[in-house]
Amino acid sequence: MKKSYTITFFTFFLVVFASFAQDTTPVEEPSTGSLNSGTISSQFDYLKSVSNNFQEYKVIKRTNLDKIEKNVLDSLKVFKDQLLAVNQQLAEKREKMLTIEAEMNANLEELKAAEEARDSFSFMGMAIHKSAYNSLMWTIVAGLAVALGFFLFKYSQSHKVITRAENNLNETVEEFEQHRKNTLERERKLKRELVDAMNGKKS
Questions:
Q1: Number of CB atoms found within 10 A of residue 59's CB
Q2: Are residues 128 and 190 in the same domain?
Q3: Residue 139, domain extent
Q4: Helices assigned H by DSSP within the chain
Q5: What span is annotated as the signal peptide, if there is one (predicted)?
Q6: d(Cα 165, Cα 83) in Å, to the nearest integer?
Q7: In a domain, 111, yes or no
Q8: Model confidence pLDDT, tens digit, residues 38-85
């Protein structure tokens, strides 16, 4: 639709000002520039340079207009194809990134499972982590150490009681032995006195 409108518009100017074309000053085609090569901007510059002037308008040949239109459409098609190619490349790279990300996540899960398997083992039919096992063992060791300390304390207290009882017993035995000696000594003394008394009566 736009193409037909553009062609009609320029055709109108060509028809209306065809009679005045001979009065205009034609511009010689420069030696440089072409509608067959160069950028779109340079082709438009070339088109303006080879077109006739009428007041503030430019009278453009139909062939040149068709050519520049074709060049513009071709350039747009090239840009569109390039854009599609870039979008396809981006989609492929995005898909590859998603695949790599999925593989990385799978590898991380495998690594996590391997670390858990390395740091845990079966204890009495239950899976237990090594850190938990170490904590349990150290708790048991600490409990045994406390129990041992308590028994040593009680043993020390009992030993002191036994030692004190032995000392008391030894003191009692010594006192009893001393008392026995004293008693024997008194008995011997009394016997001597009795014997002396009996001997004195006989004499």
A1: 18
A2: yes
A3: 121-203
A4: 2-16, 40-50, 62-118, 130-202
A5: 1-21
A6: 107
A7: no
A8: 787 888 888 788 877 777 777 778 888 788 888 888 888 888 999 999
